[in-house]
Recover the amino acids of this structure.
């Protein structure tokens, strides 16, 4: 996807199965552009894409009838209630009036807005407005919802609640989700599959388990005597890296667990934590090449 001075997406190719799919990338990586192309709202400069086997270039209307969309930016009318707005969106999706009202009540209950559903949206908090935006994306019972940065502007508690809702959509409601975020830790919590893009190019597309496999490093936390313990681990031939009060110890074999236990006992130190580290999605960006600019022949 080309703009006059920017290539938003460049030779991006991937396929995903139903489930909760995370779309990860920094701000400006091309996530919103990709979602709009998949919805048939924005024509791609070149290439092709399908959703449910439907061509995004020629069958956008059919795709949007089967999907829901929660945009990144707040575009809710302030002078109507959540019920009025979501009913309107349900009618726009083709539901009869009675069905639209029934579905609206059920959906607002699911997203946690049932008690506040008759208040004007203009008086809602950011978190409540995000729930209204989510409700309108779900009210017509789509097969797939696109959620563009759904935790934007939320406090930590609000982010946790939104992530729990997203996971419920995928597990309890049976609706597939494509959720974009620049916060990597969020998607690790809720996704089955993750697509990582940077500068409009694909870095990786795999099941979440492939990103978070266990490493060969143990994190050790003792109540005291960290330096002496580190010296003893090193003397035993282990690779040791202090990290504040924690020790990162190389897992040579299963005997390392016994060694750590014995050293802690010899030093009369309590073993607060002993756990195997796991890879994280953010490591992809630490090794990613710099994206090419158009002047450098990116495409």
């Amino acid at each position: 996807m080309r703009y006059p001075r920017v290539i938003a997406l460049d030779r991006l190719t991937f396929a995903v199965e139903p489930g909760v799919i995370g779309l990860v990338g920094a701000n400006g990586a091309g996530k919103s552009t990709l979602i709009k192309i998949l919805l048939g709202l924005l024509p791609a400069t070149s290439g092709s894409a399908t959703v449910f086997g439907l061509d995004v270039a020629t069958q956008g209307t059919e795709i949007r009838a089967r999907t829901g969309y929660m945009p990144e930016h707040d575009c809710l009318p302030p002078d109507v209630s959540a019920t009025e707005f979501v009913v309107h969106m349900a009618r726009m999706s083709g539901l009869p009036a009675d069905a639209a009202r029934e579905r609206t009540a059920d959906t607002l209950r699911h997203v946690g807005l049932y008690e506040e559903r008759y208040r004007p949206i203009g008086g809602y908090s950011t978190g409540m407005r995000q729930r209204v935006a989510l409700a309108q994306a779900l009210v017509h019972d789509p097969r797939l919802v696109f959620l563009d940065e759904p935790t934007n502007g939320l406090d930590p508690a609000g982010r946790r609640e939104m992530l729990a809702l997203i996971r419920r959509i995928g597990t309890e409601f049976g609706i597939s989700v494509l959720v974009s975020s620049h916060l990597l830790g969020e998607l690790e919590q809720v996704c089955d599959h993750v697509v990582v893009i940077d500068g409009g190019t694909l870095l990786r597309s795999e099941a979440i388990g492939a990103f978070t496999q266990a490493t060969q490093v143990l994190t050790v936390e003792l109540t005291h005597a960290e330096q002496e313990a580190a010296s003893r681990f090193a003397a035993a031939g282990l690779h040791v890296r202090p990290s504040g009060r924690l020790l990162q110890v190389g897992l040579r074999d299963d005997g390392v667990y016994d060694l750590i236990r014995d050293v802690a006992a010899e030093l009369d130190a309590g073993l607060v934590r002993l756990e195997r580290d796991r890879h994280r999605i953010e490591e992809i960006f630490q090794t990613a090449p710099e994206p090419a600019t158009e002047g450098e022949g990116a495409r």
Notes: Residues 203 and 287 are 10 Å apart (CA to CA). The radius of gyration is 24 Å. The chain has two domains: 2-208, 213-280. The first strand starts at residue 20 and ends at 24.
